[in-house]
């Protein structure tokens, strides 16, 4: 199996190089990995403790970030190596001040794994949520380097729990401890003989609380809202926007609407502007008193987590596509969250529904009925749901502290 795995990795790496001239993401990945190898070969380790964090992309980075920052606060002299698999993580966070060294992770080969471990000689390695790279994990294990998986979540349909998944289960055995999000994950792992498991919850809760406590004032958004209630529609995709605009265009309510689309390319923003029949302004073009506008389009990145603080209701996009985006960024402000049907793989969304802090809609008719209820007909339901959402977030805090206690003592 290891031989077949390595052949598969080689084929994938070759495909990335061949696609690079024609695909921007492949080009970034191919070029970034080459640069990473050059930097690794030239690296001089020096003395002192060094901890390696690896995240697949931006979402996993946000889960690992509170652990990195708390570790840095407790051990200011500890160096941190941060690696990414995806360009969507590395390109956005390559200048992150909380890590000393930030690289793409070279392709998972025995040669690359041996090189990275030899050059950096980490005192501990932390993989976030989903990352299972056989050669890197094996090399860390071979050198007796404590290795951890944090904010992990496991489901019965994963390959580890199949009758033919013995080789994949071996990778789980390379971890010294797996910090998992829930009891179901722990039970699944224990059922296949993985006992070094600890239920700590999801570090994203700590991260969103951290973000909310440091949320920035956004004068343009405050001017736009002008004291009126607002619905913040975050990380929306076209299917979300279609049903939202159907409602927005036909409602006479004195509510404000903030749309932060997932795709902020000019063509998409122009399409939104054309479809919206209400008086609309783009954030990047907003000037002066914005109170006369009814819809604000956030056409840049980096603001959404702070924009939610201005809302009384949040609509989270993605539920009519591959899956919903981060519901916790909104729930932490004590407002109810609405999302589409494809949320089953997101524990926090399932729990928000169960606890009464979230609502699922399947079509435009359900959205209309729900928004009519929450905005006008029964605002008490909105207030109660908001309180439930915040209570849920607060009840899940603390994973970062537990994980860091292990890292500091390692």
TrEMBL record:
GO terms of molecular function: Kdo transferase activity
GO biological process, one term: lipopolysaccharide core region biosynthetic process
UniProt-recorded name of the protein: 3-deoxy-D-manno-octulosonic acid transferase
The species this protein was found in: Candidatus Odoribacter faecigallinarum
Chief subcellular location: membrane
Catalytic activity: lipid IVA (E. coli) + CMP-3-deoxy-beta-D-manno-octulosonate = alpha-Kdo-(2->6)-lipid IVA (E. coli) + CMP + H(+)
GO cellular component: plasma membrane
Database matches in Gene3D superfamilies: 3-Deoxy-D-manno-octulosonic-acid transferase, N-terminal domain, Glycogen Phosphorylase B
Pfam families from the UniProt entry: Glycos_transf_N
Localization, UniProt: Cell membrane
This protein's record includes keyword Transferase: yes
Similarity comment text for this entry: Belongs to the glycosyltransferase group 1 family.
Listed EC numbers: 2.4.99.12
Associated pathway: Bacterial outer membrane biogenesis; LPS core biosynthesis
Keywords: Cell membrane, Lipopolysaccharide biosynthesis, Membrane, Transferase
Domain of life: Bacteria
Active site: residue positions: 60
Free-text function comment from the UniProt entry: Involved in lipopolysaccharide (LPS) biosynthesis. Catalyzes the transfer of 3-deoxy-D-manno-octulosonate (Kdo) residue(s) from CMP-Kdo to lipid IV(A), the tetraacyldisaccharide-1,4'-bisphosphate precursor of lipid A.
Domain 3-deoxy-D-manno-octulosonic-acid transferase N-terminal: 42-206
